[in-house]
Amino acid sequence: MEMEIDDTPKPKGEETKGKPIVVILVGAPGSGKSTFCEQVMASSTRPWVRICQDTIGNGKSGTKSQCLKSAASALNDGKSVFIDRCNLDREQRAEFVKLGNPNVDVHAIVLDLPAKLCISRSVKRTGHEGNLQGGKAAAVVNRMLQKKEFPKLSEGFTRITFCQNESDVQAAHNTYSALGPLDTLPNGSFGQKNPDAKIQLGIMRFLKKVEVPANTVSDANSIQSSVSHKNTEEKEPSYKGHDNISSFSGNASKELKEGENLAVCSSGSHASLNNTPTLAFPSISTSDFQFNLEKASDIIVEVVEEYVNKLGSARLVLVDVSHKSKILSLVKTKAAQKNIELNKFFTFVGDITKLYSEGGLRCNVIANAANWRLKPGGGGVNAAIFNAAGPALEVATKEQAQSLHPGKAVVVPLPSTSPLFSREGVTHVIHVLGPNMNQHRPNFLNNDYIKGCQILREAYTSLFEGFASIIRTQGKLAKVSNENLDSNPSGAQEVIEGANTKHSPNNDQKSKREHEHDYDRSKKCKGSQDEIGADIPESKIGKVDKNNDKIDGSMTKAWGSWAQALHKIAMHPQTHKDVVLEISDDVVVLNDLYPKARRHLLVLARSEGLDRLSDVSKDHLQLLKTMHNVGLKWVEKFLQEDASLIFRLGYHSVPSMRQLHLHVISQDFDSKNLKNKKHWNSFNTAFFLDSVDVLEEVSSHGKATLRDDESLLSMELRCHRCRSAHPNIPRLKSHISNCQAPFPPSLLQNSRLVLAPCNAGIDP
DNA sequence: GTTCTAGAAC
DNA sequence: GTTCTAGAAC
C-alpha cells in the first residue's frame, strides 16, 4: 500500500507486527492501575506480565531495579509488560522507557482521575498490596500529585493514552483487551482533554476530614499554581520533530509533513482516535455497477470541489485497492486541473479496511459501496468492510436502517468492539448506494445516464453530508462531555459499550417466546380474516368485526380487550369528547392517555379495518398524508407554546392498541409514564417508523417495511441523542434530562425531527 | 396499553 | 436493605 500523493516507496515486509509492548501506568494510588492491568490481563489474548513494585519484593517492599530486571526478562520471552507503579514523574519513568527499542513499543496510560476519587479509594482500601491505608493515604496521594508530570511523547513513548474519567478508562481497557498477540496500536497521544483544573477545590474540604500533615493543607494554593504552571508547558505537546515520531509507521511521513498535529487529538472518548477528520471513500458505482468512468470521475471531482471548502480542515480521500486504478488517475488529473488543495482531497491506493494499519493513513470515517439491503456479502468493498468490521457493523447498521435507495447514504456509528474501530480508528461507516448500470443487479438504469449522473451526484452529496454531520456531532459531543465532567464526576455510567454483550441464552429464549406469542396473535388475526376471505370489501369486514365484538369475540381476544380503546374512539369520537382534541372525517386527534413525553398526542385514522401499519396500502397514501399534516399542525401549535421542543412523528411497527395511529411526540421523553425498556425502545429504535419514511415507502412500494422484530424492544438502552448506553431506565432518564448532544445524523435528515423555525438552522 | 408483584440485581 | 425488571393478569 502506498500514498499516491508523494510516491513514497512502500517499505513492505517490514516486521512491524507482533512487537511486545511496555505499558507504563501513570497514576496516583487509588487511580486504578492494578485493576486496569488485571482486567486487561483477564480478557486479553496477548501474553502480559504485570510488574508491580509493591508485590515484587515478596513481602518486603520492592525496588525499581527488581522491576526493571523482571520487565526485561519478560520482554525477552516475547511477553508484553505492564509497569504497575505510580510513575508520576519523568525521572521515575525514564529507565522504564529505555526498555523500548525498534522492536518494543513503549506506551503510557495515564489514569488521571479526580484526586478526590483516588484518595477515597485509597482510604477505603484494606488489603492493598502496598499497605497504603487509612488517613495517611490522603496525604500521600496529595503529595504525589504535587509532583505529577504528565508523560510526553518526547520522553520516548510511542503512544500515550490519557484517561480522565471512568469511561475513558473503560475505553482504554477495551482497546488494550482487544489487542491480540500480533496487533499494534496507532502511535500518538490520545484523550487529553482539559489540561487545566487538575486539582479540584472540593478535595481540600475533603482533606480536612482526614488526618493530613499541616503543610499539605496550607499548600493548597501552591499545589494549584505549580500544577497549572506545569500545564502551560503541556498545552502544546511537542509532536513534530521527534525522531520516534517522524519514523511513525515508516511510510506515513507525508502525514506529518502535512502539518498534522497528532498530539491534539484530544476531545471526548468518542473522538479519541481521531485527529484531522478524514473520510476515505471508494469510487461509487464504477466497479460492479459498471458506471462510465469518465462521467463518474467528473462527478466525483465536481462534488468534492463543492464540499472540500465546506468541511473546514477535514479531508476527503478517494481510495482504490488497485495500483492501475483508472478512476483514481482520472480523478487525480481532473482534481489537479481544478486546483483542489491536495491536503484536503487526494487519492490513495490501498485496502480501505487497513488504511491506518498498513498505510499509515488515519481515517475516522470510511464509506462503503453498499448494496440496497445493507447486508454483508457480495464482493468488493462491501464484503471487505463487513468482514473487517465484524458482526458489530451489521448490528449497528440494522439499528440505523434496513435498506437504502440509490443516491442515499446512511451513517452508522461503529461500536468500539469492532476491530475496525480498535485497529484502524474508524468511528463511523457511511453506507452509500449508487446508480446501477449493470443489468444483472437491482435497479438497472438501462444506460440512462441522465438519471444515472443525477443519482451518482446525489450519492456523493449524501455521503459528504453524512461526513459533515459526523464532524459537527463530534465537535459538540466533545464539548458536552467536558461539561459533564464537572456535574457528574462519577461518570461511570456514560458509555458502557462492550459491557452489554450478554445477549445470549436468556434473551434468545425470551425472544423466542415473544415470537411464538406474536405468531399466535397474527395467526388468530389472519385466521379469522382468512375464514371470511382475504379480499372482501371493507364494509363487510366492518360488519364481521362487529359480530366479533358481540358474538364470536375472537378478534377482540386477538387484540385484547384493553387494546380496543383507540378503535372505539376513532369510530365514535363524539362520545369521547372529554379526551378528543379534534375530529374530522378522516382523523381524530387526542392526547395519549399515558404520554411518554411533555407533548405526546395520537392522530387516529378513522377508517374501519385499518388497525395498524401492516394494513396500509397505496390506497391509504392520501390518508397517511392527512394524518402527517394534522400532526404537523399540532406540532406548530406546541412549538408556539414552547419553542425548545423537538418533535418526531411516526408509527410503531407493531402497535399494542388497535386502530392505526400516528404518534406525535416531543423528544424530551420527560414523563413519569415512561417506565420501562419497551416504552423507550418503541420510540427510539427502528421499531419506530418515521412518518416521512412511511409516506415515502408507501408511495414507492405500496407498503411500509415494518420492523416487527420484537427483540428491538428489549435492546440495550441508548440515549437517542449521544447514543451512550445506560444500565437501566432511571439512569437513562437522568442522563437524557441533561444530554444536549446533537441528534444522530440519521434523525437530522429528511425532516424526521420537527423543530421551531427559529431553531431550524441550528443542530438540535 | 397499565398495574401488580416476585424475585433478581445491586 | 433498596432498586429495578419482567411476567401475568387485566
Automatic annotation (TrEMBL):
Database matches in Pfam families: AAA_33, DcpS_C, Macro, zf-C2HE
Biased composition (Basic and acidic residues): 230-243, 509-522, 537-547
Region called Disordered, residue ranges: 221-251, 498-547
Cellular-component GO terms for this entry: nucleus
The keyword DNA repair belongs to this UniProt entry's keyword annotation: no
Domain called HIT: residue spans: 566-674
Entry keyword set: DNA-binding, Metal-binding, Nucleus, Zinc, Zinc-finger
Domain Macro: 332-523
Gene Ontology molecular function: any one: adenylylsulfatase activity
Species whose genome carries this gene: Quercus rubra (Northern red oak)
InterPro entries: Histidine_triad_CS, HIT-like, HIT-like_sf, Macro_dom, Macro_dom-like, P-loop_NTPase, Znf-C2HE
Name of the protein in its database record: Transcription factor bHLH140
PROSITE patterns with a match to the protein in the record: HIT_1 (PS00892), HIT_2 (PS51084), MACRO (PS51154)
Location relative to the cell: Nucleus
Organism taxonomic ancestry: Eukaryota, Viridiplantae, Streptophyta, Embryophyta, Tracheophyta
Keyword DNA damage: no
GO BP, sorted A to Z: single strand break repair
